[in-house]
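So, could you explain the following?
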Amino acid sequence: MVTVDRLLTVQQAAEALGTGVRFPRRLIEERRITFVKVGRHVRIPEGALESFITEHTVEPVAVTYRRAA
């Protein structure tokens, strides 16, 4: 059986990312995120959005400070 992610509108994807709608539309236009065309509508699978966020998450660097001698 195939599991299908919930399909998000561009507006919903923008809200999840905390951006305006222009950003997810640009991701779609540049083919940087997986999307589904439903007729003339564009939807972004929830899993694709989660993958995009995971791939672009930057982990903090542990910094150690040395005292000047």
Summary: Residues 46-55 form the longest helix (10 residues). The chain has a mean pLDDT of 93. Helices lie at 10-17, 22-29, 46-55.
